[in-house]
Specification:
With 266 residues, the protein is an alpha+beta fold. The termini are far apart. The strands form 2 sheets. It has a 6-stranded antiparallel β-barrel with strand order 1-2-5-4-3-12. It is 37% helix and 32% strand. Strand 4 and strand 5 form a beta hairpin. The protein folds into 2 domains: 104 residues; 159 residues, Rod shape-determining protein MreC, domain 1 (Thrombin, subunit H). The mean pLDDT is 79. It is built from 2 helices and 12 strands.
Length: 266
């Protein structure tokens, strides 16, 4: 930096001090501020508007998130209510079918809820009912679902609860016959928790077992009335040289979907 520039800077400094001292500098400052005021005002307006837009966007975003959360909660609530209504409707249909069945018969009944499943040779082959001996339930009675479909048999009864083997349990034995073919009868036994079977049916009989024949209770058990539907013949197993044949039977009711049943007091 040369001496001329240094002298110029020093002179400018003294000039500024002198102008400030004599009061002339504030006039210039005021004039400059007056000139720049509109520009400053415009920048302030734009900055304020940008800030407001930012705040509005933040508020809108927060409101959108809150509304979305509220909608999710309302949707969950509606799903829960719909599920409860469906369960109630299903229970009403089950009870209506059972009432329709009993209205055509002279049986006494006890309606019961299934409170647990399990403990069988395979899963869910024993059901526990919330009614027991104090309600008239005894060992050997038939457990019914829907329009007279037998789904099991009571094997133990305490005061307030009872226990039932489902008809597909291997420990379940039921005296049965074929609807419309009274000469064919035998004991139905559970098979692997899925199906049932009747063994030792003589091959040399007048009436033959056919696929889709309806299996019913025979009435030979003192606590189970005749004519309760047990299942439908799925397969007939016989060999030419054998004296007996076997019928494989499917339940007519989905035993995994049971919730409300009734016990025939007979």
């Amino acid at each position: 930096m040369n001496k001329k520039r240094i002298y110029t800077i020093i002179a400018a400094g003294f000039l500024i001090i002198f102008l400030h001292y004599i009061g002339f500098l504030p006039v210039i400052e005021s004039y400059i501020i007056k000139i720049l005021a509109p520009v400053e005002s415009r920048f302030f307006y734009l900055g304020n508007k940008l800030n407001l837009n930012y705040e509005e966007k933040n508020i809108s975003k927060r409101e959108l998130i809150a509304d979305n959360q509220k909608l999710k909660e309302e949707n969950i609530k509606l799903l829960e209510e719909n599920a409860k209504l469906k369960i109630l409707a299903d229970e009403n249909n089950i009870l209506r079918e059972q009432l329709n069945f009993y209205s055509q018969k002279q049986y006494q009944k006890v309606t019961a809820n299934i409170i647990s499943k399990g403990e069988g040779l395979t899963a869910n082959q024993i059901i526990t009912l919330d009614r027991g001996a104090s309600d008239g339930i005894k060992v050997g009675q038939a457990v019914i679902f829907g329009q007279g479909h037998m789904v099991g048999k009571i094997f133990a009864a305490e005061n307030q609860i009872s226990y039932c083997y489902l008809i597909t349990d291997r420990r379940s034995l039921t005296a049965a016959s074929i609807s419309g073919k009274p000469t064919i009868d035998g004991l139905i036994k559970g098979e692997l928790g899925l199906t049932m079977r009747i063994d030792y049916i003589p091959q040399q009989i007048e009436e033959q077992i056919d696929i889709n024949d309806i299996i019913i209770t025979s009435g030979l058990e003192p606590s189970i009335p005749k004519g309760l539907i047990i299942g439908k013949v799925q397969e007939v197993i016989k060999e030419d040289n054998d004296l007996f044949q076997t019928a494989i039977i499917n339940p007519v009711t989905d035993l995994n979907s049971l919730s409300i049943v009734s016990v025939i007091i007979y």
